[in-house]
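Supplementary notes for students who missed Thursday's class. We covered one full example, reproduced here. Read the sequence, then the structure, then the short commentary at the end.
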Amino acid sequence: MTRRLLFIHGAGGGDDDRSLADGLASLLDADLTYPLLPDEDMSPAAWASPIRTHLHRLGPDDVLVAHSFGASVLLQVLAETATSVPVRRATLLAMPNFEPVGWDVPEYAFDGPEPDVELALHHCADDEVVEFGHLTLNAARLPSATVHRHTTGGHQFDGLAQRLATIIG
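Structure (token representation):
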């Protein structure tokens, strides 16, 4: 059976994130699931519902990657579903921190608990959309997560698909 990659794009990233998702799927030899989430409704509920649906179609060896705003919503979904999550790990790319010390948007702020899946946080130092300091904030909030700092790649992780695929495995 072929492994699957569920890639959750960021806000307004349906087109922007597609190249990275396609590259990762190819490098990981995985079938890509890339749901287009609603830009017209950025509420956590509007994004969480389709994420839950796609998440529960995965198996333990499938790959779960989310970018930016999509990563923050995925984190909330993973925390609420706790032990019923079928995957073992999730890779969160350029995830904003919405707590008061970050962007201070209570509607989007993660209020735990830390999910029962292995988390990997990735961020590029030259990200001009989500400041690099958000990685430190998220790492403090998620102490069991593995943290990966990338010098370059920007918000879209340009040129880093191979490196990400190697780390994700």
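Commentary. The longest helix spans residues 69-81. The mean pLDDT is 94. If anything here is unclear, bring it to office hours.
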